[in-house]
Write a structure and sequence with these properties.
The chain has about 350 residues and is an alpha/beta fold. The chain has 3 domains: about 100 residues, Beta Barrel (OB fold (Dihydrolipoamide Acetyltransferase, E2P)); about 150 residues, P-loop containing nucleotide triphosphate hydrolases (Rossmann fold, 3-Layer(aba) Sandwich); about 55 residues, Ribonucleotide Reductase Protein R1, domain 1 (Orthogonal Bundle). It is built from 9 helices and 15 strands. It has a 5-stranded mixed β-barrel with strand order 2-3-4-7-6. A two-stranded parallel ribbon has the order 1-5. It has a two-stranded antiparallel sheet with strand order 8-9. Helix 2 links the parallel strand 10 and strand 11. The longest helix has 16 residues. The protein is globular. The structure holds guanosine-5'-triphosphate (GTP), magnesium ion and zinc ion. The site of zinc ion (ZN) has 7 residues, from helix 8.
Length: about 350
């Protein structure tokens, strides 16, 4: 099993991924080697995992591989993700690319939270983008590329599945004189307890709310390519730590500039994770019956449906449909629900 299973990521990675041919022996439990050390995965670049070790305040970075025996409770997803707490064994060599001491990951701890999707491409497996993050900032933009509410709603659900607190950041407000129509389009979210921030990362406008949201937690920035994730991250870090690139003139889309998931430490308690822009986002492990429960804005109406179970699609006396008709449930949210139900039909859940 390869641990870097993201085709999109490997295609655009400057460091070519070489096939992991060596077999990995994955076990759910077992004894750790005596001299293993605790570390935190802070970056994943192709087959290389950068691990931060903090021993009595002495911070060090180790260039690790995942090979040989590994103990992990997550054998069904990628074995290692940024944010994972791991045990590693140090070796006495220096990595050519990074100049760091090398090591080997021997165990991964149980993930407290995670943000995952169905792996890109044809394979059906889970791809955990980040583990143990407290919050998720879904980045989108008013134009170049224009936001997609279907995408946002799917990502919100994935956050719910993994127990990560989501918020929505709508970037590039500088491109419009009047953004009131856009603000209206996002009105449904604050009503269900999901914060929405309208910002211009370029002009550093509206960032205070984001600083407040991310303070004292680990936050993953996630969204399509070109929406300004790395621009915003650089603003928040206060330095140009991540490369930023122009939108393609030909397609009006981003150019997949960021190619690796990478964590940055702003203070002892605040961390941000930048991630590569994705082309598609499919949910992992959607259960059709449970789906409505994850639509927070549907839940309070569902109890009044005449039939149980109710798919909220066509049943007479459906309270969710009635709420959509009255405008008490946002029509676009309902459309996202329908799309998801239809996609679960296709994949046979
Ligand atoms: N007008 C405007 N442009 C912005 C803003 N934020 C970012 N951009 C531009 O959008 C382009 C893409 O920005 P990036 O930060 O590289 O986007 P990204 O989301 O990190 O993209 P990937 O790494 O490819 O996923 C760059 O040309 C930025 O200068 C903004 O607030 N307003
Ligand atoms: Mg980027
Ligand atoms: Zn119903």
């Amino acid at each position: 099993m390869k641990f870097d299973e993201d085709e999109e990521l490997s295609k655009s990675s400057p460091i070519r991924k070489h096939k992991v041919s060596k077999r990995k022996l994955v076990r759910e439990s077992g004894d750790l080697p005596e001299n293993s050390e605790l570390g935190l995965v802070v970056a994943q670049i192709g087959n290389t995992v950068i691990v931060e070790s903090d021993f009595d305040g002495k911070v060090e970075y180790i260039d690790c591989k995942v090979s040989g025996k590994i103990i992990t409770p997550h054998s069904q997803s990628n074995l290692v993700a940024v944010g994972d707490k791991i045990q590693f064994l140090r070796s006495n060599s220096i990595a050519e690319d990074s100049g760091l001491v090398t090591g080997r990951i021997v165990a991964v701890e149980q993930r407290e939270t995670y943000f995952s999707r169905k792996a890109a491409g044809r394979a059906t497996r889970e791809h955990v983008i980040a583990a143990n993050c407290d919050k998720l900032l879904i980045l989108s933009s008013l134009a170049d590329p224009i936001y997609n509410r279907r995408f946002i709603d799917r990502v919100l659900l994935a956050a719910e599945f993994g127990d990560v607190q989501p918020a929505i950041c709508v970037n590039k407000t500088d491109l419009f004189d009047d953004i009131s129509a856009f603000e209206e389009d996002f009105e449904a979210y604050p009503k269900m307890g999901i914060e929405v921030f309208f910002v211009s990362a370029l002009n550093q406008d509206g960032l205070n709310e984001i600083i407040k949201f991310t303070k004292d937690s680990t936050t993953l920035l996630f969204g399509p390519s070109g929406v300004g994730k790395s621009t915003l991250l650089n603003d928040l870090v206060g330095q140009e730590v991540q490369e930023v690139a122009e939108i393609s003139e030909r397609t009006g889309k981003g150019q997949h500039t960021t190619s690796a998931v990478r964590m940055f430490k702003l203070s002892d308690t605040t961390r941000l994770i930048d991630s590569p822009g994705v082309r598609e986002f499919a949910l992992w492990n959607v259960n059709r019956e449970e789906l409505p429960l994850y639509f927070r804005d549907f839940v309070k109406f569902m109890h009044d449906c005449k039939f149980t179970p109710c798919t909220h699609m066509h049943e007479p006396g459906c309270a969710v449909l009635a709420a959509v008709d009255r405008g008490d449930i946002d029509a676009e949210r309902y459309q996202s629900y329908i799309n998801l139900v239809e996609s679960t039909d296709e994949i046979g859940f």
